[in-house]
Every structure is written in structure tokens, then in C-alpha cells.
Amino acid sequence: MSAPEDTAIRTTEVIRRKRDGRELSRAEITHLVMGSVRGEIPDYQISAWLMAALIRGLSRAETAALTEAMLRSGEVLDLAEFAAAKVDKHSTGGVGDKTSLILAPLVAAGGLIVPMISGRGLGHTGGTLDKLESIPGFRVDLSLERFRQVLGACGCSMIGQTAEIAPADRKFYALRDVTGTIESSQLICASIMSKKLAEGIDALVLDVKTGSGAFMKTLEEAASLAELMVDAGQRMGTQTVALITDMDQPLGLAVGNSLEVRESIQALGGGGPADLRELSLELAAWMFHLGRRAGTLAEGKQLAEGLIRSGQALEKFREMIALQGGDPGVIDDPERLPRGKHRVDVPSPESGYVRKIECETVGTACVILGGGRERKEDSIDPAVGIVLHKKVGDQVSAGEPLATLDYNSPSRATLAKQRVAQSYAIGDRPVSARPLIHRVLGGASRP
Amino acid sequence: MSAPEDTAIRTTEVIRRKRDGRELSRAEITHLVMGSVRGEIPDYQISAWLMAALIRGLSRAETAALTEAMLRSGEVLDLAEFAAAKVDKHSTGGVGDKTSLILAPLVAAGGLIVPMISGRGLGHTGGTLDKLESIPGFRVDLSLERFRQVLGACGCSMIGQTAEIAPADRKFYALRDVTGTIESSQLICASIMSKKLAEGIDALVLDVKTGSGAFMKTLEEAASLAELMVDAGQRMGTQTVALITDMDQPLGLAVGNSLEVRESIQALGGGGPADLRELSLELAAWMFHLGRRAGTLAEGKQLAEGLIRSGQALEKFREMIALQGGDPGVIDDPERLPRGKHRVDVPSPESGYVRKIECETVGTACVILGGGRERKEDSIDPAVGIVLHKKVGDQVSAGEPLATLDYNSPSRATLAKQRVAQSYAIGDRPVSARPLIHRVLGGASRP
After folding, report:
1. Structural domains in chain B?
2. Could you give the residue ranges of the DSSP H alpha helices within B293-402?
3. pTM for the full model?
4. pLDDT one-digit tens code per residue, A283-304
5. How close B176 comes to chain A (CA, Å)?
6. Which of chain A's residues have a Cβ under 8 Å away from the Cβ of B2?
């Protein structure tokens, strides 16, 4: 028999085995991934397999094998030229989550290397690349060579996925998006981890979001994904820890690309909302700890606080912006960032206490304003967004603004305003907000 | 939003609903089928849906909707020009099953119209088209216009699926073949019934095979498929009956294309093996009964017996062969059919009684001889095959031939001989064969 025929037969057999709930070998999974990337296995076979994998599930070993095969489908960065530990952080996505913008410069200021390859906004959640691009001139499409140069010059660099990194993931993800096969924690794990581990990092801190603004709505779902990712990372020899953190209301106060850059600059300068500051310090502490810059988390946190207080963290952000073609002047004068032409408040309909903020609705309101994409090919308006004035537990009087919208299109603002108003639930008794960090998984080997 | 985007979004939503085990509406199923045929829905979405449908299952209503949508994806024959009832028979496939070759001329000789659109061999099972093509000159690729002419001239015609008939089934089937989604009784039902109902028939007799040579190995599987098909046929207003018949050993004695034509000529002439004759008369009786040529099954059987005895059935076969370009001389001189250059016996290793014949193995032996296809693109040797001398329950002495192979390739014969020898189990006590007809479903409205 000819080789293509062998491939075809074997592929169908692999699909049938997963269809019947059997565990696939590493070789079978590699066959699928490499066959797809090489164009030998057509998309219709991959999508049938993806559906079988979603419904039947993948074992830990299968998930790790898929992660590794997708990782090895492309280039794996070798950053051995840098003596310091290479660490990164990844978030599963949320609303107002701008910690990446804070952590990359903060942790690089502490002497570690942060080679961060990020994504764009997805659905109601924001994307790090979209936020960075709201800085005039900032380029996220650096070549891997230039990425390496920026890392050498300032210790951190933030770019988008390149053609060389995990091409299998790009192919699989595009298929999953249109075949109803996104919602598998094992496939999500492999997608995230293959890209992150391709960065050639020593340690990875995962921020797995849970709550009404997260993809994983329940703590159980989040914990299950977190466990899978920690397991896949550790099997690949990368120290991995996962913090399950709250996304039941937006993180910080700003939601929208340039507004979030502005808030990140505030946080790097020692200001900004308390929850954003707390989570950033916690994540930085873990990165310093795993990267052996801090013996304990408490030391890591102190180090981070010191780097903010001294201005070194903010200075590092300025450096990175300049190295990636952006206007470093935004650091001292955030007014250089784009801003919506108009502003409108969303008043509280009654007096009381904020009981809940339906977080996904706030994210959707930002998309409606133009701050996110309804369709993949949509362009983004970097200037628009929402600034919250009240968060869960806060007291509010009737008519007092709950939030302010920055907008360019009045018709979009009308719709978005309704959504933001809907997202708030006001009660007559004070409530306490949920904890910011629900659980920590992995990383226990170094107390 | 643009129309293609609407389609894309809706398709993903439909896939997700089936993935989650929800029941789809007729409109959603029609959307998938027509979208695929029109080229608006890519194969990778269809294959993901097929996998979800196989694993989650389809309800009766979904199966009927799929059948109807595939049927309406192409032309539905209108044979109203013929006053007589239009009836057909379909078998789910077996080894040595040549009843179609007997029934089409037999039932047409009885005054009904038999517009039979058949398939080729699949796996270890034979195909009606392959058998017919072993008759020198016989054409199965008639246009629908010529098909209609042959029907008008002799009351029966046997052709292959044309481009006009159920194009969605051709597309779906090709995808199922390479995505591990063949083995769904609901998808099998829709595939079979869409093609058969497109023939514009009034009644359909289904021969659902069960046993070691059938695709449905157990009676339960066969009954489940039979029920689905009867239900789908009746929902579409076509009288449908299903006989669950035995395929635990080959039907008749001949397995292989020209050998089966030869045996069919014998049966139409009043001879041939008893089981082949019995099943053919039973199926013919149902066709006559549903086609209102016989008030009872007993009458139908008598009618069939008379048509064989009088020579009218065989004469009708001769007519059809001539009308479809074949050599009608094979009727009187079967030696005009191709025959393997060599013959070899398979001797019994011991004395006793045939306890079992592993039927799929016999079918595979015929494929090995060249009588079937190992790969879709293989050509078939019409001359080769196997003639059994012993069937279940028969007494045999050590060294006496169990079967004789007709072959052209000695190396293939060696392998096939082993398989045939393996397929026989000899015991020391007489056993009785399984009943030929296990169960009858549907058609009960006309006692």
C-alpha cells in the first residue's frame, strides 16, 4: 500500500478508537497533530476527532501528549543565552484583567526574563495584544529575532503568536472555533500550554479565572482545567503553578483597551485599584519565587512592592514600550493614549449596596462600544471602554454614577449603557466581595 | 451580518446542540444537509456533526428528517406514468446474497415495476452492481432517462446511484467512510432510505441481515436498524416492511460475482439451493403483497412460484440483460460468464457435521481472491469466487471438499483457501441451522 493510504487508514482507526472512548497512545496523537500540520490529514478528519475528544474526554496522559505534539509542531525558543530564569504568566481570560501589562515589566525589573507571547480578545474578554496596540506606535508583531533582542535589552517583551510557534494549535484552534469543539478543558489546556511551553520558559504561573466573567463559570471547572495545565506543564519539566482567581466582577475599574493601559500605568506607579494591585503582587511573588529570585512568597511580594515604590517597574515598562516602537511618553502623560470623544454616566437606579456585577455583561458592553470584536475580522476601537465607580460591596445612592462610558458612537453607547445598567444588582444590605484568590494548585515542591 | 456569516454561526450552533445531546429540529437538519450539498457548509463542520450524531444518537424524528433532507437534496423519480405499483427490495449486505438479481425480474414478471438502484460491494460483502457487471456487456451506469425506458420496456431495471439521486448521501457517506462515523444505525438508516425513497416507489421490502456475515452481528442491532428504517419509510408515506434474515452463513452456495449470477439463473429457472429459493420467494411474496398483486403472503408466494415454473421470471431476466447491453446468451449458456482459470478444493480436516461457518471470513476470502475490493479504487475480478459444498448441519467426511475456489492468482488462492478452511467448524454431533427469517417488522397494516 502507498504511504498516503496508510495514513488515511490509520487516521480513521485513531478517530474510531477515540470515538469508542479508548485511550490513544502518544504515537497516535502525534500522528494526528503532525499529519494535520503537514497537510496529510484533512481538516474533516481532525474535526471528527476533536468532537470525539470533546465528548469522550482525554486522559491526563493524552492531554500531555497532545500538548507536547502541538508544542513540537513548531519552533521551541531556546533562551539559554540568558542566565536569569525565564518565567511567564498566563491568564485564561477575563474582564478588566490587565495584569500582564503590569507583570512583564515588574518581574523583568526584578531581574528575571519574561518572554510573553499573548493573544487577542476573545468573546467578552479583553486581549493583551489589543491593549498594547492602544499605545501609539506599539508593535506586537515582532519577529522572533527582534523579540530576543528586546528581551536582551530590557528583560521583557510582549508579542503575538508567530507563524513559527505551535502551528498545530493555530490550525486546531481555527477548526474548534467553527465546529463546536472549544469547550473541552483538555483541548483548552493543550492549546494554552503548547504555546506557553514553546517560549522556552523555566516556570509558568497560570491565572485561571472563575466566575460570571470567566469562561469557567464554576470553581470546579476552573480547578479541573488548572489541574490539567499544571500536570501538563510539570510533565514537560516546567515548574507550573495555577492560581484560581475571581472573575465574578471586573478586575480593577477600567474595562477597555487604552483605559486599561492607563490603569496599568497607575498600578506600576504605585496607585490603581486595590484588587488589581493585590492580584498583581501575588502573581509577581509567585513568578519571583519560581524564578528563584525569592525564597518565599512573602519575599517575592516585598521585592515587587519595592520595585514599584522605586519606580523601576514603571521605568521598565517605558523601556519596553520604546523598544517595541511605542510612544514612551504615555507613561508620564497618559492623555497621549486614545480616548473616546464622549462620556456618559450610568446612574444607579436606587440607593443601597452593590450586591453583584454580572461580569460577562460588562465585557459584552465593552465589545458593543467597539472595544472588542463581534466577529474575528472586526477592527477594534482602542479608545472606548468603561470605568466602574462602584464594585461589589460598595454603597451607592440613587442617581450616583455606577460607571462611566467612554464612547465614539452614540448608538453603540445607548446599547452598552443598558448592558452596564443591567449588570449591576443593588441590594439593601452590605455584602462582602468574594475572595480574590480561591485556590492555588501546583508549585508545592518549593514551599 | 452577511449571509455566509449567518450560515457559519448557525452551523456551529447546530453542531453544539447535537454535541450536547439535544434534539435538532427538521429545519436545523435540513440546514446542514442542504448547506453541505450547496457547498456553503465545509466538510469539517459536517464531520464534526456526524461524530456528535454517532455518539449522542439521533431520535426517530431526527432520523426521519435527515432521511427526508437527503432524499430531497436531489431528484425524486416520478414514475406515475406506470400504472402498476412500484416496489423495491433492499438488503443491508451479506455474503452470497444474490436475491436482488432474482427478485427484480421475478417481481417484474408478476406485473409490478421494480426500479432498483443498487450499490457496490462493501468490505467483505458483495455488491449487486459488481455481480451484474460480470455479465459481458451489462451496463449499470444508465441515465435516469434510459432507466425509465428500460422500466417501460420490461418492468425492471437495475442501475447504480446516479449524480441526480440523493447527492447529500454521496457526500455524507464519503465523509463517514474516512471519519469513523459509519457505525451509526441512524446514519445508516438515512443513507439507505434516502436513496431508496428517491426511486419514487410505493412500497419497499427491507432485508436486514444479522449474524457473522452481516454488518449487524446481533439480532438486537438488526432489529433496531430495521425499526428505524420502517419508521422512516412509513413517515414518508411509503409502505415499508423489514425482514430480519440470517447471515450467519453465506446465502446459497456461490460467493463471487459471476458464480452468483450463475446461481441466480439457476434459481430463476426453478433450481438452486433451497435457502436461496426460500428467501427469494418470501421476499417476492412481500413485494407482491405490498404492491397489491397478492391479497396474502401465501398468494404472493404462489404467484412467484408460478412465474418461476412457467419460465416467465427467467425470460424477464433475459429481457433486462439485453436492454442493459448485456449478453442474453448467458441465460441458456452460463459458460459465457467469466470463470476463474483454476479450481482448487478445500478439504474437510475431519469427519463430522458442519457446526458453524464464520461467514465474514468466507466473504473476506472472496475479497482476497479478487472478487471484492480491499480499497475503493481497486478493480474487481468478476471470474473468481467460492462454491460451498457443505453448509451448517451437513455431514462431511475427512478429506471431502467443503468448498471449491475458482481463482486466477495462485498466491491469492493459497491465502483464500486458508481463510475458507478456518471459517468452517466441524463438530461430532448434528446441529440444526438457524432459522432463515428471524423476524418481520412493519407492513402489519395489511395482514
Report:
1. 11-57 (1.20.970.10), 87-162+181-333 (3.40.1030.10), 338-427 (3.90.1170.30)
2. 297-309, 312-323, 359-366
3. 0.86
4. 999 999 999 999 999 999 999 9
5. 10
6. none
